[in-house]
Write a structure and sequence with these properties.
Belongs to the LysR transcriptional regulatory family. InterPro entries: LysR_HTH_N, LysR_subst-bd, WH-like_DNA-bd_sf, WH_DNA-bd_sf. It is a single chain. The protein has 293 residues and is of the alpha/beta class. It folds into 3 domains: 80 residues, Arc Repressor Mutant, subunit A (Orthogonal Bundle); 104 residues, Periplasmic binding protein-like II (D-Maltodextrin-Binding Protein, domain 2); 91 residues, 3-Layer(aba) Sandwich (D-Maltodextrin-Binding Protein, domain 2), CATH 3.40.190.10. Helices cover 41% and strands 25% of the residues. The protein is built from 10 helices and 10 strands.
Length: 293
């Protein structure tokens, strides 16, 4: 019988690429991860890893087992969802991840509605950049999350996760006057922190217009970004959800590129009653037409 916890480690090795990264994700030592994977190989009766020096790669049998591991983990999620649905009333923790603009706009009314309908749910919200959410969902550190992607920075498919569309947004150039991207070539730019989706999106949008943005400031809070634009410190790209209380002197010019907000959860959890309840409350708050289930 194959151990599910070891299957999860093998799946994560396929995701992260190194034993050290898997160990860091699970707060294990690399030696402990190696021992567990060696035990899984003994259970499987076939080589799952090809070791060359310090590097490790999945064998064809290892890749096959990873595909089946995703099915097993999704089936366990479905089983847990079915058991939760058999209980009377919703109770217990619901750990929610969300990006900052959703925290200020979409989430509060959804939480009010959810708490009123299901007072025994223990709601816990964590503000996160969407780039870190997939691993937290895979590790069950979150139950559900709001994520976003852009036309220029699409979400990479992840067999361990599922998403449901919530809303699309316009992206604006925030500048002292009406501008297009080409007209901002010589302007100083205000970008989000490197490694975030917003940073990558802005860089790619400028590159598509034929130049690399000249970065003067880094700021992740869009209220700060708009304040800096009003102070003449540069130009920036701002999504629709953040385009509220725009300071005097800042003009927002819409771009054809879009930002898409999605609800993310583990494969197999789409029928979990807490996930469905959150999706319903969130969909109502966002005016969404499509929710999981």
């Amino acid at each position: 019988m194959l151990d599910v916890r070891r299957l999860r480690l093998l799946r994560d090795l396929a995701q992260h690429g190194t034993i050290a990264a898997v160990a860091a994700a699970h707060t294990y030592t690399p030696s402990a991860v190696s021992q567990q994977l060696a035990a899984l190989e003994r259970e499987a009766g076939v080589a799952l890893l090809a070791r060359t020096g310090r590097t490790v790669a999945l064998t064809p049998a290892g890749r096959t087992l990873v595909a089946h591991a995703e099915e097993v983990l999704a089936a366990l999620e479905r089983a847990g969802s079915a058991l939760a649905a058999a209980r009377t009333g919703l109770s217990g923790p619901l750990r929610i991840g969300a990006f900052p603009t959703a925290m200020r706009t979409l989430l509060p009314p959804a939480l009010v509605r959810l708490a009123a309908a299901h007072p025994a749910l223990e709601l816990s919200v964590h503000e996160l950049d969407p780039a870190v959410v997939p691993q937290m969902l895979r590790d069950a550190a979150l139950d559900v999350a709001l994520v976003h992607d852009y036309d220029l920075v699409p979400i990479e498919p992840d067999p361990a996760l599922r998403t449901a569309p919530l809303r699309d947004e316009t992206i604006f150039i925030a500048a002292p006057g009406r501008r297009d991207l080409a007209g901002c070539r010589d302007e100083p730019w205000i970008l989000a922190s490197p490694g975030t989706l917003c940073h990558t999106m802005t860089v790619r949008a400028c590159e598509a217009a034929g130049y690399t943005p000249r970065v003067r400031h880094h700021a992740d809070d869009f209220v700060t970004v708009l304040t800096f634009v009003a102070a003449g410190q540069g130009v920036a790209l701002v999504p629709e959800l953040a385009a509220v209380d725009v300071p005097a002197g800042v003009v927002l010019t819409p771009l054809p590129t879009r930002r898409r907000t999605r609800l993310a959860f583990r494969a197999g959890a789409e029928r979990h009653p807490a996930v469905e309840a959150f999706a319903e409350a969130l969909g109502s708050a966002a005016g969404a037409e499509e929710v999981p289930g």
